[in-house]
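Run log // design_07
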C-alpha cells in the first residue's frame, strides 16, 4: 500500500475564523499568488461558513467563476503566461462558463478540472486558483475527502493532517471539535486508507485531553504540530505531548519550512529543526517527521544544504537520539519548472535515498489540497512516479511510511497507535459489503478477533 504522508481534508467552513483568513493570506503571498486573486479568495473565504451546503456552494462557485472570467486584471495576468495567450484564454473562458452553467443547472456540478484538464503542473494559471477555491468551498470534510480519493488508486492511502488555528483559550471550540468529528467519520468511510493526525495547539484550553480523546477513541493515529502559529516547541505543555507520544507509539508531524502558515514573520523560526535537538535527547527514538524537509529550495538551488534547515534535519537523522527522525517531500513544486532546479532536486534526492540511513527516513507527501494552487493531486503522484526509480518510490511511499506510522509489514505486528485505530474501526461494525476496509486492516481485524 502506497501512502501519501501529508494531506489535508478540512474545508474552509471547518477552519476559517477571521484569524485563519489572515494567516491564509500570508501563505498565499508567499506562494506568489497574484494580488487580484488573493483579494477574491479572501472575499470567498469570508462567505464560506454561510455557503456550507451543496446548493449554496455551487451558487458561490458559479459566482466566483463568473467574476474570475470577466475580470480585466485576470485577463491581463493570463496574457503574461507563456503558454496561455489571450485568444486561448477567451476560448477557455467561453467554454468554461457555458459548461459550468449547464452542469449547475443540471444539478451535477462536476468541477472545473473536467474542462480545464489540459492546464496543470506545467504552469500556474487562474484555473489552479479556481479549483483550489472550489475544493475549499466544499460543504463538508466528507466532500473534500471524496474529491481526493477519486484521484487515488485503490491501494493508496492518505495521512490526513488536521489544523487548529485558534485565538487561544476556549475560542472556536465547537469549530475545532467539529473538524475532529468530521475527520474521524472519514476513517469509517475509507477504513485503512484515511489515517488522521490530530493537530495540537497548546494555546487552546484542554489541548492535551482533546489529543488523547482523538487518539484513543476517534481513530486518529498521530499528532500534527505547527509552531509558527505562535508557540514554543520546548515547553512544559509540549513536554506532556511528547511524554504521551513516546509512551504510546504515536508519530508526530511538525511543519518545517519557512513558508506555510504563520501568525507573524517573527514566529517562522519557532519551527527551526535545531529546536528539536534537546527534545530528541530526552526522548530518543521519538518519531518526528519534519514536513517539507526544511524547505525545497535546499534541494533545488545551487547551494548545498550544510547550514540550512534541511542540513539540520539530516544531521538529526544520524544523531544518537535520531532513530525516529523522518522528513517528507510535500509541496515540492519548484523543481517542476525544469532546468537546473529539477536536475539538482532529483540528483540530491536520489543521493539521499541511496544512503543507508537517510534513505529509510524520507516520506512521500503532496500537501493536498493546499498544493492545488499549482497542480492536481493525481498529477503530483504521476510526476514523482515518472522520476523516481521503482526502488525509490517503494521506499518513500510504502516501506518508510509503514515504519513511520507503525503499520504491519512483512510479519511485523502493528504498533499500539495502529492497534487503537484497528479497534476503533472494528467497534463500528462496518458492513464490509458496503464499505470494504483496506486489505491490511481487514487482516488485522480478523487476527485480533481470532
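design_07 sequence
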Amino acid at each position: 500500500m502506497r501512502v501519501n504522508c501529508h494531506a489535508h481534508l478540512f474545508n474552509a467552513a471547518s477552519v476559517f475564523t477571521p484569524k485563519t483568513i489572515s494567516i491564509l493570506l500570508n501563505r498565499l503571498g508567499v506562494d506568489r499568488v497574484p494580488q487580484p486573486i488573493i483579494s477574491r479568495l479572501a472575499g470567498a473565504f469570508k462567505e464560506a461558513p454561510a455557503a456550507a451546503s451543496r446548493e449554496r456552494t455551487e451558487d458561490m462557485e458559479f459566482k466566483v467563476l463568473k467574476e474570475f472570467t470577466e475580470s480585466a486584471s485576470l485577463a491581463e495576468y493570463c496574457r503574461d503566461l507563456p503558454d496561455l495567450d489571450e485568444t486561448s484564454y477567451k476560448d477557455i473562458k467561453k467554454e468554461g462558463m457555458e459548461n459550468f452553467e449547464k452542469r449547475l443547472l443540471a444539478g451535477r456540478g462536476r468541477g472545473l478540472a473536467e474542462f480545464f484538464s489540459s492546464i496543470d503542473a506545467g504552469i500556474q494559471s487562474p484555473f489552479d486558483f479556481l479549483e483550489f477555491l472550489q475544493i475549499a468551498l466544499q460543504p463538508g470534510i466528507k466532500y473534500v475527502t471524496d474529491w481526493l480519493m477519486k484521484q487515488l488508486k485503490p491501494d493508496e492511502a492518505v495521512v490526513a493532517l488536521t489544523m487548529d488555528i485558534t485565538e487561544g483559550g476556549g475560542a472556536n471550540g465547537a469549530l475545532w471539535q467539529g473538524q475532529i468529528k468530521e475527520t474521524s467519520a472519514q476513517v469509517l468511510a475509507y477504513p485503512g486508507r484515511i489515517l488522521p493526525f490530530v493537530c495540537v495547539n497548546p494555546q487552546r484550553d484542554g489541548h492535551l485531553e482533546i489529543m488523547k480523546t482523538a487518539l484513543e477513541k476517534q481513530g486518529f493515529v498521530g499528532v500534527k504540530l505547527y509552531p509558527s502559529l505562535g508557540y514554543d516547541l520546548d515547553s512544559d505543555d509540549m513536554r506532556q505531548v511528547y511524554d504521551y507520544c513516546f509512551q504510546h507509539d504515536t508519530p508526530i508531524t511538525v511543519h518545517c519550512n519557512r513558508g506555510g502558515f504563520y501568525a507573524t514573520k517573527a514566529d517562522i523560526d519557532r519551527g527551526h529543526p535545531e529546536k528539536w535537538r534537546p527534545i530528541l535527547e530526552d526522548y530518543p527514538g521519538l518519531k518526528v517527521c519534519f514536513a517539507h524537509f526544511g524547505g525545497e529550495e535546499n534541494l533545488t538551488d545551487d547551494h548545498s544544504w550544510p547550514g540550512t534547515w534541511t542540513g539540520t534535519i539530516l544531521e538529526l537523522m544520524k544523531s544518537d537520539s535520531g532513530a525516529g527522525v523522518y522528513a517528507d517531500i510535500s509541496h515540492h513544486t519548484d523543481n517542476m519548472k525544469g532546468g537546473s532546479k529539477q536536475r539538482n532536486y532529483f540528483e540530491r534526492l536520489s543521493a539521499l535515498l541511496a544512503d543507508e540511513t537517510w534513505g529509510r527516513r524520507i516520506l512521500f507527501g503532496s500537501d493536498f489540497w493546499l498544493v492545488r494552487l499549482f497542480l492536481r493531486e493525481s498529477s503530483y503522484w504521476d510526476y514523482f512516479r515518472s522520476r523516481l526509480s521503482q526502488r525509490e518510490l517503494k521506499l518513500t511511499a510504502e516501506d518508510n511510511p509503514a515504519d513511520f506510522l507503525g503499520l504491519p509489514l512483512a510479519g511485523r505486528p502493528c504498533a499500539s497507535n495502529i492497534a487503537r485505530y484497528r479497534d476503533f474501526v472494528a467497534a463500528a461494525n462496518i458492513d464490509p459489503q458496503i464499505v470494504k476496509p483496506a486489505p491490511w486492516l481487514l487482516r488485522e481485524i480478523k487476527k485480533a478477533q481470532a
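The first helix runs from residue 12 to 15.
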